[in-house]
C-alpha cells in the first residue's frame, strides 16, 4: 500500500512516528511518504523514505498550517491508500473530505490537554474543548482510529486498536548507572511537568530525575530553572537513535 504519514505538530524525528511506526510500515512492504514540518523544526529531509515539507502548527499560529494541510489532502490524498494523521488539528484539515482512507493516530487526551494550553486564552478553552469533542466523535464515525494508550479507550464509543506509545527496554544493559528516574516524551503541564519537577526536588540528591524531550512553551522556563537548581536533569529533545 501507499501510505501518507502526516503531522503539522510533531517533530519529524518524533520517536513514535519516525522510528517505530514508519519502519514497521516499510518492513511490511508498504511505500511510505512522510509529510512534516522539516524546515521549521530544523530537520533535514530523509533519504530513506519520500518526504514532503509542510508548515508547522505552533502556539496560536495554527490556522495557516491547517489550511495548507487541507490543500495537501485535497490534492494528494487520492494518491495514497492510507492517510495516517497524527494531530487533532488535522481533523479540521480533513473535515468534509472523503475520509474512507483516513486514519487518526490518537496520541493524547485532546480535550484535557486543550484546557491547559497556555497559548489558548482561558475564556476560549471551554468552547474549544467542546469543539474538539465534537470533532473526535465525528472522526470516530468517519475514520479509522488508533489509540496510543489504554486510558483513551473510554473516550470513544467503539473499540479501536491500541498501539502503546511505549519504549521497549533492552534485555541487557552494557553499563551500570546511578539510581535515577527517567521520563521520555514531550513535556507539558498536562503530562505532569510540575509533578516531575517536584518529584526531582524530593528525590535529590540521592536519586536524579532525568527528563528527555522537548517542552511546551509554558514549561521551558520552569524546566530551565529546575535544571539549574539540579532538581532535574533536562536533556531537551534527543534524537531517537541517540
Describe the SSE topology:
Layout: E1 2-6, H1 15-27, E2 31-36, H2 38-41, E3 50-53, H3 63-76, E4 82-85, H4 89-94, E5 102-106, H5 110-114, H6 125-142, E6 144-147, E7 180-184, H7 193-203, E8 208-212, H8 217-228, E9 233-236
The parts where pLDDT drops under 50 for at least 5 residues are none
Counting helices, strands and paired strands, the structural category is alpha/beta
CATH uppermost class of the largest domain: Alpha Beta
Task: Measure the end-to-end span.
Answer: 31 Å
**Percentage of residues assigned to helices:** 25-40%
The CATH topology name of the largest domain reads Rossmann fold
Q: What portion of residues belong to β-strands? A: 15-25%
Largest sheet, order of strands side by side? 3-2-1-4-5-6
Would you identify the CATH architecture of the largest domain? 3-Layer(aba) Sandwich
Number of domains: 2
Outline the biggest β-sheet.
Answer: 6 strands, parallel
